[in-house]
C-alpha cells in the first residue's frame, strides 16, 4: 500500500477560492484525481526499536501494563472526504462503527471474544435479521443490567427468598431433563429383532446333515412396527419462530358477583382494568351492585421462552365515584367535579405455554376469584350473608399454534425412573392411559415425582400432621370452621411458584415437594399448597380430599381441597386464595375435576360432567368413580405398602433465626421509606404531605388487626371482641377523626421483595387523588409465620381536613 497507494477521483465541481484554482470548471480545469499514500506504523515502534530489530515480545508486555489512548472514532477526521449525511446512510459503516465502540468499551484483549465478521458488500447483509438480533441483544443486556442492580439493592431476606425460588425452579428443571434423557434411552430390543427358530428336532437335523453342527446364528433385522415408533403422536415443526411466538388472547368479560357494596347504598360505577405485558385495556362502566359488561378485550402479545418473568394477565376491579370540588369559587353556571377511583380487588391468570395450549383447545366460561382488601372505609367487603368471595365470569380463548406433544402409553410405561413397585406403576399408568383416551382434557394423575426423582403414588403425600398452635387452640375451643378458615389464610400467605412449562410435554408426571421442604424453602406450587392444607386438616381429624383439575387462574394445573365437617357441611377450598365454596355453588372457580385422592385411595372421575356443582361425590358408586387401589391385580399387601406416607410426622414451624426483631424493624423502616418515595414519584398533582401521627397510629392498628384475624394472642375470647375493623379505627385514630375525613384501605400479601409491595401499593391509585389539601399516612406491619414465610400488611389512608 505504501508503494502503490490508493487511487481516487471525484466529480465534484469546485470554484476558485482565495487564490486556489478549483477543479472541473466547464472543461477548463480537470476533475480532482490522484493517489493517496498511507504509512503504517507498529504501535510503540519508535520507542522499542533496539539495534534495528523490533522487539515484539517487549512491545506485547508493555501493551498489557501500560494504558494506551484509543481514538474516539473508527475514522480520522482528516480522512473524511464526503458529506457526513452519506456516512449516516451507510449501513455497513454503521455496523463497523458499532462493533468498534463495543470492542473499545469491553477492552478486547488476548482474543477472548471472536470478532463478528461483517460482509464487504451491503447486498450480502441481512439487515432485517441483524436489526432484530441487535434489538434482542440490547434487550437481554438491559434485563441483565436491571437484574444485577436489583440483586445489589436486596437485603439478606430478599436474597434468601430469591435463592429459594431459583433452587426450586432449577430442581424441577433438572428432574425434567434427567427424566427426558432416561425416557429417550432405548434398549437394543427396540432397534433389532431376531427371527424365531423353527420348532424342529435338532437331533433329526444333525442326523440328516451327517453329524455336522447346525449353525444356530441368524441374521438380525431392523425393528419395524409399533415398537419402533414410540412416542410420536403429535409433533410440531417450528417454521418461523418469530411469527409463531405471537399469540392472540381473547378475554370475554361477562359479569361480576358479590361485589363489595357501599355502606351508604349509593349507586356504584364498576369497571375493570386488564393489563398484560405492558398493554392495558379498560372496560365500560356498569352501574349497580351486579355489573354486566359482555365485552371482549383482545391482546396481541409476543411470548419469549427465555424470559425469566412469568406472563400474567391481571384484572383489577374499580369503583368510580364522582365528587364535587370542595370550596369551588369558579363560574356559578358551570359544574366542576373530580373523579375518585376506588380499588376493590384484583385477580391474575397465568399464561405459560401449557396454559395457552390448554385454552387453545378448551373454551369454557369460568369464574375468576378476586383478592379484595382487608378493609376499605365506606365499603362492606362481606356484604353477602354467606361471605362469598368476589368473582368474575370470564370466557378465555387463545389463538396460537400448539407445539406441546403428547406422550403415548408406551412412553409412560417405560421403566426408566426409580420409584414404586412395577405392579403399582404399571397398573396406574395403564389405567391413566385408558381413561385419558376417553377424557383427553381432564387431569388424570396417580403418580408424582418427589425431590429425589422417584415416582411416588400421590396417596403417600398425605399424612396427619399437626398444624401450627394457633389453629390447634382454636379447633380445641370448639370453633372448627374458624380453625379451618385460619388454616386457609396461613396457607394463602405461602408464596406461589409456577413451573416453567415451555419445553414440557402434556401428561408428564408432576413434581411435588414434601410439607417439610415447602416450609423450609418458602415457595410452593398450587398442588403443594393443597397438600399442606390437607395434611393440616387430617391432623385435626377432619375428612378431606384433594381435587385435581383446572381453573381459570392456573390453567390445567390446579388443586382444591374438599373438607367434610361433623354437621355434614362440605367446603371446597382454594388454597391459593384461602376462599371456600359450597360444592353446589355454580360460581366455584374450579372448571373441571379429573382426579380426587386422600391418604387411602385415588378416585378418577368418569362422569360426563366436570364442574363440582354437577358431580356426585359418593365415591362408592363405581359408575361415577374409578378406584385405583380397588383393582383385582393389586392385592391387600401391595396396597398397604403403597399407602405408607413419605411425609414427616412432626414439623417445626419456628421462623428462621435470622429473622429477629431488629431485622424486622430495619426492614419495615426501609420498606416504608421506599413506599413513600415511589408514591411521591408517581403523584401527578402536588407534593404529598405525610401525617406522621396518623402513620404511628396505623402501625398499632395493623398489629391489632393481624392479631384479630390470625388469633396471634393466646386469649381467644379476648380476640373475638376485636374482630370489628371500625372498632379498631375508632380506637387508634380517635384524635384525628374530629379534624380529618379519613378514608383507609389495607391489604395483606406474602413478602417476597420490595418491588412486589411497591407495585401492590401503586395499584390502588390513591396517588391520583386531585384534592389539593389531602394528607397521606402509611404504615407497614411484618409478622413471621413459619420458616422464611413473612406476612406483610400495608395500610394507607387519605386525610382531608374538615373545614
UniProtKB/TrEMBL annotation:
Region Disordered, annotated ranges: 128-153
InterPro entries named in the record: C2_dom (IPR000008), C2_domain_sf (IPR035892), CEPT76/DRC7_peptidase-like_dom (IPR056290), Tectonic-like_complex_comp (IPR052434)
Domain C2: start-end pairs: 229-360
Pfam annotation, one family: C2
Coiled coil: none
Top-level taxon of the source organism: Eukaryota
GO cellular component assignments: ciliary transition zone
Biased composition (Basic and acidic residues): 139-149
BP GO annotations: non-motile cilium assembly; protein localization to ciliary transition zone
The name this protein goes by in its record: C2 domain-containing protein
Species this protein is from: Meloidogyne enterolobii
Amino acid at each position: 500500500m505504501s508503494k502503490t497507494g490508493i487511487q481516487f477521483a471525484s466529480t465534484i465541481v469546485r470554484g476558485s477560492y482565495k487564490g486556489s484554482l478549483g477543479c472541473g470548471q466547464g472543461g477548463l480545469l480537470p476533475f480532482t484525481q490522484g493517489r493517496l499514500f498511507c504509512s503504517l506504523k507498529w504501535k510503540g515502534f519508535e520507542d522499542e526499536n533496539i539495534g534495528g530489530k523490533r522487539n515484539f515480545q517487549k512491545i506485547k508486555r508493555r501493551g498489557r501494563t501500560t494504558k494506551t489512548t484509543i481514538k474516539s472514532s473508527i475514522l480520522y477526521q482528516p480522512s473524511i472526504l464526503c458529506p457526513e449525511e452519506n456516512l449516516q446512510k451507510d449501513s455497513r459503516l454503521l455496523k463497523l462503527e458499532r462493533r468498534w465502540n463495543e470492542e473499545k468499551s469491553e477492552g478486547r484483549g488476548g482474543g477472548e471474544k471472536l470478532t463478528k465478521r461483517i460482509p464487504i458488500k451491503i447486498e450480502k447483509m441481512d439487515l432485517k435479521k441483524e436489526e432484530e438480533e441487535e434489538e434482542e441483544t440490547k434487550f437481554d443486556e438491559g434485563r441483565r443490567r436491571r437484574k444485577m442492580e436489583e440483586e445489589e439493592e436486596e437485603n439478606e431476606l430478599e436474597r434468601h427468598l430469591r435463592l429459594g425460588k431459583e433452587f426450586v425452579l432449577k430442581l424441577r428443571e433438572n428432574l425434567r431433563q434427567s427424566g427426558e434423557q432416561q425416557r429417550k434411552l432405548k434398549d437394543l430390543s427396540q432397534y433389532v429383532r431376531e427371527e424365531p427358530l423353527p420348532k424342529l428336532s435338532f437331533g433329526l437335523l444333525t442326523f440328516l446333515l451327517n453329524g455336522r453342527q447346525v449353525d444356530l446364528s441368524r441374521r438380525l433385522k431392523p425393528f419395524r412396527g409399533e415398537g419402533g415408533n414410540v412416542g410420536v403422536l403429535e409433533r410440531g415443526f417450528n417454521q418461523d419462530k418469530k411469527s409463531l411466538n405471537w399469540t392472540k388472547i381473547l378475554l370475554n368479560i361477562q359479569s361480576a358477583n358479590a361485589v363489595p357494596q357501599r355502606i351508604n347504598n349509593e349507586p356504584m360505577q364498576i369497571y375493570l382494568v386488564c393489563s398484560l405485558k405492558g398493554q392495558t385495556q379498560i372496560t365500560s362502566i356498569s352501574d349497580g351492585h351486579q355489573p354486566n359488561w359482555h365485552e371482549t378485550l383482545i391482546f396481541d402479545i409476543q411470548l419469549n421462552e427465555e424470559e425469566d418473568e412469568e406472563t400474567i394477565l391481571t384484572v383489577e376491579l374499580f369503583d368510580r365515584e364522582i365528587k364535587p370540588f370542595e370550596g369551588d369559587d369558579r363560574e356559578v353556571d358551570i359544574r366542576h367535579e373530580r373523579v375518585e377511583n376506588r380499588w376493590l380487588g384484583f385477580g391474575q391468570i397465568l399464561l405459560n405455554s401449557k396454559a395457552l395450549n390448554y385454552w387453545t383447545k378448551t373454551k369454557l366460561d369460568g369464574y375468576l376469584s378476586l383478592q379484595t382488601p382487608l378493609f376499605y372505609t365506606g365499603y362492606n367487603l362481606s356484604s353477602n350473608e354467606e361471605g362469598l368471595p368476589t368473582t368474575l365470569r370470564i370466557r378465555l380463548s387463545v389463538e396460537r399454534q400448539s407445539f406441546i406433544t403428547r406422550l403415548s402409553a408406551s412412553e409412560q410405561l417405560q421403566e426408566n425412573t426409580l420409584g414404586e413397585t412395577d405392579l403399582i406403576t404399571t397398573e396406574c399408568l395403564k389405567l391413566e392411559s385408558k381413561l385419558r383416551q376417553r377424557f383427553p382434557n381432564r387431569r388424570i394423575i396417580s403418580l408424582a415425582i418427589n425431590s429425589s426423582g422417584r415416582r411416588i403414588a400421590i396417596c403417600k403425600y398425605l399424612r396427619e400432621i399437626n398444624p401450627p398452635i394457633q389453629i390447634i387452640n382454636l379447633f380445641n375451643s370448639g370453633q372448627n370452621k374458624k380453625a379451618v378458615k385460619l388454616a386457609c389464610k396461613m396457607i394463602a400467605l405461602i408464596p406461589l411458584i409456577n413451573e416453567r412449562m415451555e419445553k414440557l410435554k402434556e401428561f408428564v408426571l408432576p413434581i411435588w415437594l414434601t410439607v417439610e421442604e415447602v416450609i423450609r424453602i418458602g415457595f410452593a406450587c398450587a398442588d403443594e399448597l393443597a397438600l399442606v392444607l390437607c395434611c393440616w386438616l387430617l391432623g385435626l381429624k377432619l375428612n378431606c380430599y384433594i381435587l385435581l383439575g383446572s381453573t381459570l387462574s392456573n390453567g390445567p394445573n390446579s388443586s382444591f381441597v374438599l373438607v367434610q365437617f361433623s354437621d355434614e357441611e362440605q367446603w371446597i377450598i382454594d388454597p391459593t386464595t384461602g376462599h371456600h365454596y359450597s360444592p353446589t355453588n355454580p360460581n366455584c372457580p374450579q372448571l373441571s375435576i379429573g382426579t380426587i385422592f386422600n391418604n387411602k385411595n385415588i378416585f378418577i372421575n368418569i362422569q360426563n360432567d366436570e364442574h363440582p356443582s354437577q358431580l356426585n361425590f359418593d365415591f362408592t358408586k363405581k359408575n361415577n368413580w374409578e378406584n385405583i387401589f380397588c383393582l383385582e391385580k393389586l392385592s391387600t399387601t401391595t396396597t398397604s405398602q403403597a399407602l405408607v406416607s413419605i411425609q414427616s410426622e412432626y414439623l417445626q414451624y419456628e421462623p428462621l433465626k435470622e429473622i429477629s426483631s431488629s431485622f424486622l424493624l430495619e426492614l419495615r423502616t426501609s420498606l416504608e421509606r421506599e413506599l413513600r418515595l415511589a408514591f411521591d414519584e408517581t403523584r401527578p398533582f402536588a407534593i404529598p404531605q405525610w401525617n406522621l401521627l396518623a402513620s404511628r397510629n396505623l402501625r398499632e392498628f395493623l398489629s391489632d388487626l393481624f392479631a384479630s384475624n390470625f388469633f396471634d394472642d393466646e386469649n381467644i375470647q379476648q380476640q373475638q371482641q376485636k374482630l370489628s375493623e371500625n372498632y379498631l379505627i375508632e380506637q387508634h385514630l380517635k384524635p384525628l377523626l374530629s379534624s380529618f375525613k379519613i378514608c383507609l384501605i389495607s391489604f395483606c400479601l406474602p413478602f417476597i421483595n420490595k418491588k412486589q409491595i411497591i407495585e401492590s401499593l401503586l395499584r390502588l391509585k390513591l396517588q391520583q387523588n386531585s384534592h389539593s389539601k389531602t394528607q397521606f399516612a402509611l404504615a407497614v406491619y411484618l409478622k413471621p409465620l413459619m420458616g422464611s414465610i413473612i406476612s406483610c400488611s400495608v395500610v394507607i389512608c387519605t386525610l382531608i381536613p374538615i373545614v
